[in-house]
Amino acid sequence: MSIKSLAGQTIYYGFSNIASKLLNYFLTPLYLELMTQASYGEMSTVYAYIPFLNIILTYGMETAFFRFAKKENSQTVLSTSTISLLFSTISFTILLFFFRGPIIHSYIGKLSGLDTHPVFFTYLVLIMAFDALTAIPYAQLRLENRPVRYAVIRLTNILTTIGFNILFLVIIPKMYAAGHTWLPDVRPGNQIGYIYLSNALGSGIALLLFLPQMMRIRWQFDTAVWRQMLDYSIPLIFFGMAGMVNETFDRAWFLPEFLPGNNMTDKKELIGIYAANYKLAILITMFIQAFKLGAEPFFFKQAEGKDPQKMYARIMKLFVVLLCMMFLFVSLYLNVWKTFLRRPEYYPGMKIVPVLLLANMFLGIYYNLTIWFKLTDRTKTGAMITIVTAVLAFLLNWWWIPVMGYFGAALATMVCYFAQMTICYILGQKYYPVPYHLPRILTYMITAVLTFYLYDMLNRTLLSPGDIYALKPLSLFVATVFFIGYIWFLLKMEKKEFSRLPFIGKFVSRI
């Protein structure tokens, strides 16, 4: 497989992923306009915990499926992993319902508003169960290079979710106000429940679309293969859980626990501000996720070829180039992106956006680096890396949040991802050396950061000193000059590399 093949798969997976994320992204302004800061904080807390439970529910079986489908009979691995997830998901769902009372009346349950609306818990459990059951079917489509069907199901999921959101939050309230009192009364106090219900319906429809594919599986369970897969995948639980400490635990636990004061409403509002601005960093996250979806099966297949390390190094360089461009695309135009937040009370949190963008750049590079321990079956080492950075995350958040508030959480996220990336690179060069173009990668990243902070300094002192996020023509013009200048710099530095790429190569060669 070539970079052209990877690019094609990433475009397909990326299109479905980015389109679904963007569509969902545009729901956020609706939420911010309809909901109070405290309510948005409640919902953000819930959605911060779901990834943790999803990791437990899938326990690394998706990655194990990719790994062992190369070594064993693919149908045996497919059926074994599917049966394993089916039984574990049913068991875990029953367990969650059994402990429903203690969960919804816990501190987190109260912070999430579950104690006053127990039915919300049912919707959330269904979301997690449906998503866990579709993990292997999605992985099967990726392994079999069927990105079109993957994209169709993914988009159907999100369009259904959005459709129900609009129905419950916009259409039904208007009809109710017009006199159709037989419809549910969707008010600020119960809006969140309808958001969860919409998500559950979308995930359920995706599972229904996978049923024909799942019914074609030969239902055979190979205990020996299952044990090998578990031995490979169990460390990935710790790897994933520790990774989630960095990714979502700031909203799930660090901010509620370490923010000064005991007023729960104030904490919910601050979490709401933080979560809303965190969404602005999602544009770079969408690209990372799209790349990850296309790259994981590609890397495993590439490992079977001759000298795959050179290909990995080349991919990393191009990946960093794109990350740097996206970092500047968001950070230089924050005065445009602020319209996404809808209400001025969220604007003070925009100072965290460049920090979170940089953090996500480090995270994307880390995902690219992790291939060494997946290919060498050193998943336990990968788990240890993320556990170490999870401990660092706890210490930094404990130190910085009481002093700097939610900016401390953003800064801790960036430092942790940097540490995680650095440790992974050092160990990877020891166990699976890859000739990464380190001088150029560092040059592009440092130049991108300096470009933003130079613009930021000019904006604060000359262009818009009174309101740095004001939408002024001069600020936009200077930002565009800086952005185009950086792209020109990249094209000059990587003209040969870009000219070899499909589609854009013929345009770059003329520069």
List unreliable stretches of 5+ residues: none
The count of helical stretches stands at: 25
Rg, Å, rounded: 23 Å
Strand content: under 5%
Report the biggest beta sheet as strand number plus sense, adding barrel if it closes.
none
Helix content: over 70%
Task: Note the overall shape.
Answer: globular
The run of helices and strands is HHHHHHHHHHHHHHHHHHHHHHHHH
| Structure summary, number of beta strands | 0
Give the overall average pLDDT: 86
Kindly report how far apart the N and C termini lie.
29 Å
Q: What structural category arises from helix and sheet content?
A: mainly alpha
Architecture overview:
This protein has 511 residues and is an all-alpha fold. The chain has a domain at 1-26 and 37-252. Helices cover 79% and strands 0% of the residues. Helix 4 (61-68) packs across helix 12 and helix 15 (282-302) packs parallel to helix 18. It is globular.
What distinguishing features does this structure have?
511 residues, mainly alpha
Q: Can you lay out the helices and strands and say which pair or pack?
A:
Layout: H1 3-25, H2 27-34, H3 37-58, H4 61-68, H5 74-98, H6 100-104, H7 107-111, H8 119-133, H9 135-143, H10 147-177, H11 191-215, H12 223-247, H13 249-258, H14 264-278, H15 282-302, H16 308-331, H17 334-337, H18 353-369, H19 371-375, H20 379-404, H21 406-431, H22 438-463, H23 473-493, H24 495-499, H25 505-508
Helix pairs in contact: 1-10, 1-15, 3-8, 3-12, 3-13, 3-14, 4-5, 4-9, 4-12, 5-8, 5-12, 8-11, 10-11, 12-20, 13-20, 15-16, 15-18, 16-18, 16-22, 16-23, 18-21, 20-21, 22-23
Subcellular location: Cell membrane
Keywords: Cell membrane, Membrane, Transmembrane, Transmembrane helix
Membrane topology: Multi-pass membrane protein
